[in-house]
């Protein structure tokens, strides 16, 4: 059972809170930003569609004034619900309840169960032609946000709205399925009153559906309504899943418009893994496992991110050929962490927790700007680069939405409870408390030790991950056996028992996949950034509303070659870097 505070399997999870300073600081910055947002402005687009009073306010700008309007609301609901579950913040509960009730009013006014910040015709268009900027991607965020509010705060109105929306979406899926059954009937489309131009399979190749399948599967896990399962499976893009089932890597092949788009593809495999988890669909589980190996082992940068300009453009093991300012979209790392946790639930293999650690400690910690909580779109990997962040209230990118969730999700990756075998896995060394079970005192990654204190009398097997980056890992206070990347400690525990962990962070080189010349420097799991130009920019200079889709402005360009490392470079952990030009890749002499 993945401890997402309360999990979708309907078994009660334990409350997990984070105390480690590096992590807790970011949670605080994030919470302050989310509470600063005007709920009525987030609701304005929904009220416009429902023809309800907008309270005299306008929609936010940036992507909230495009066809993706409403996606931020979904992410905001998820992140706020997670914050409430961890903190019990009464002001946040009131804000969430107000938003959910307002969305219920919009849905009631729409009469059909539909709920979004744009009209239903956008769904008609994308179903018939594949064209349109990702309406199902946006619906996914809204539906998932409602489910998370229900799951983490027990708000029954959120579940009612989610079920009504799910039933509406199921009716649309049933129309598509019936249309497919009449594919050879030239008169059927005309009778149905829709102008079909492509098949549903072709539409899937064009559009971006995000994690829509996952959200419908999460709804199915609660309702056990087969209509919701059928709808989810209609969104499995088999042109991507079938090669992965056979362990064939075609990720870079732009066979169809969205085929090599990373953040369209990763959620497909999250949906596959969730399908396998809920229904035992073994081919889908195998596809997710194979895909994960292809991406994290052969197409990922040292920070855990993947993709260049949102895409996989080259065959596997060519990471060093794409080191630019437009690499590692943060949403992709967010989704790879979700996929890794699902796959850990499937097999309990330490490699999934290891990837999560690398991604969290480097890319995700770096993706939020100190104090302002502005978020990062691309993480640059070119030498002499500087990190830039969007001004949150002006952009509302996809990575603004997932960025809101990232700090609130730290808690779900730390522990894993296997109830069947009475095992508790400690996967991350983040200072935290699992209410009523244990407390882990740790300032990791700023420190190399932790103390686990048992909070109750219990009999259980504690599974402590042994990090591969530590050659002298030590446990004091308990005896255990090493197995499958973990130290297994099986015993009767007394309240107050302590286990001391020591994990010195060894330094080493790690070559980019496919290269025997280009490498990064690591200390433990931490990517070390070499400062190339001290005091390069002030804070205002690295806060932008431009995510570099149209090219990098001259003041942010870097013409520096990959340097040879020598001791003249001051190297610091990437997450501690600050506003300096830096390099994370080096070349051999």
Describe the SSE topology:
Blueprint: E1 16-18, H1 21-36, H2 39-50, H3 71-87, H4 90-110, H5 121-129, H6 135-153, H7 156-181, H8 188-192, H9 200-206, H10 212-223, H11 226-234, H12 238-245, H13 262-279, H14 282-298, H15 330-347, H16 350-366, E2 389-390, H17 392-395, H18 398-408, E3 415-418, E4 423-426, E5 432-434, E6 438-442, E7 449-454, E8 458-465, E9 474-476, E10 481-483, E11 486-493, E12 498-502, E13 507-511, E14 518-523, E15 526-533, E16 543-544, E17 570-573, E18 581-583, E19 586-587
Parallel strand pairs: 2-16, 4-8
Antiparallel strand pairs: 1-5, 3-4, 5-6, 6-7, 7-12, 8-11, 9-12, 10-11, 13-14, 14-15, 14-19, 15-17, 15-18
């Amino acid at each position: 059972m993945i401890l997402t505070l309360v999990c979708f399997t309907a078994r009660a999870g334990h409350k997990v809170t984070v105390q480690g300073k590096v992590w807790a600081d970011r949670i605080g910055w994030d919470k302050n930003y989310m509470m600063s947002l005007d709920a009525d402005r987030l609701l304005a687009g929904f009220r416009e569609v429902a023809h309800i009073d907008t309270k005299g306010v306008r929609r936010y700008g940036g992507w909230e004034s495009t066809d993706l309007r409403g996606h931020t609301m979904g992410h905001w609901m998820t992140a706020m619900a997670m914050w409430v579950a961890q903190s019990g913040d009464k002001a946040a509960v009131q804000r969430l309840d107000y938003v959910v009730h307002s969305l219920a009013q919009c849905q009631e006014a729409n009469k059909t169960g539909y709920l979004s910040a744009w009209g239903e015709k956008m769904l008609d268009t994308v179903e018939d032609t594949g064209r349109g900027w990702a309406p199902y991607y946006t619906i996914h965020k809204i539906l998932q946000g409602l489910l998370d509010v229900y799951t983490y705060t027990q708000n029954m109105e959120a579940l009612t709205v989610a079920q009504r929306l799910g039933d509406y979406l199921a009716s649309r899926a049933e129309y598509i399925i019936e249309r497919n059954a009449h594919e050879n009937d030239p008169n059927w489309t005309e009778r149905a009153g829709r102008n079909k131009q492509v098949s549903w399979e072709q539409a899937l190749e064009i559009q971006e559906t995000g994690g829509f399948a996952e959200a419908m599967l999460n709804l199915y896990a609660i309702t056990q309504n087969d209509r919701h399962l059928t709808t989810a499976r209609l969104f499995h893009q088999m042109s991507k899943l079938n090669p992965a089932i056979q362990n064939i890597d075609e990720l870079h092949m732009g066979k169809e418009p969205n085929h090599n788009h990373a953040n369209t593809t990763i959620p497909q495999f999250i949906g596959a893994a969730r399908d396998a988890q809920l229904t035992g669909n073994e081919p889908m589980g195998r596809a997710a496992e194979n895909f994960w190996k292809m991406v994290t082992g052969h197409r990922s940068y040292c920070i855990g991110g993947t993709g260049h300009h949102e895409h996989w453009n080259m065959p596997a093991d060519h990471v060093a050929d794409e080191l630019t300012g437009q690499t590692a979209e943060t949403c992709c790392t967010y989704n790879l962490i979700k996929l890794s946790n699902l796959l850990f639930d499937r097999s309990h293999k330490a490699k999934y927790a290891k990837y999560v650690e690398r991604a969290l400690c480097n890319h995700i910690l770096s993706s939020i700007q100190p104090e302002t909580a502005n978020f990062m779109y691309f993480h640059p990997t070119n030498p002499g680069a500087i990190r830039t962040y969007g001004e949150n209230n002006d952009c509302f990118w996809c990575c603004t939405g997932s960025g809101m969730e990232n700090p609130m999700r730290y808690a779900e990756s730390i522990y894993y409870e296997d109830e069947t075998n009475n095992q508790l896995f400690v996967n991350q060394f983040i200072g935290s408390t699992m209410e009523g079970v244990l407390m882990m005192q740790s300032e990791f990654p700023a420190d190399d030790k932790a103390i686990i204190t048992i909070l109750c009398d219990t009999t259980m097997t504690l599974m402590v991950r042994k990090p591969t980056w530590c050659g002298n890992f030590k446990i004091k206070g308990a005896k255990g056996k090493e197995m499958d990347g973990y130290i297994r400690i099986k015993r009767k525990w007394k309240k107050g028992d302590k286990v001391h962990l020591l994990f010195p962070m060894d330094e080493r080189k790690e070559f980019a996949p496919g290269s025997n010349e280009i490498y990064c420097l690591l200390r433990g799991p931490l990517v070390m950034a070499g400062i190339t130009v001290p005091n390069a920019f002030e804070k205002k200079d690295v806060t932008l509303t431009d995510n570099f889709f149209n090219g990098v402005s001259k003041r942010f360009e870097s013409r520096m070659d990959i340097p040879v490392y020598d001791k003249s470079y001051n190297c610091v952990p990437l997450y501690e870097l600050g506003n300096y030009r830096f390099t994370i890749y080096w070349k051999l002499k």
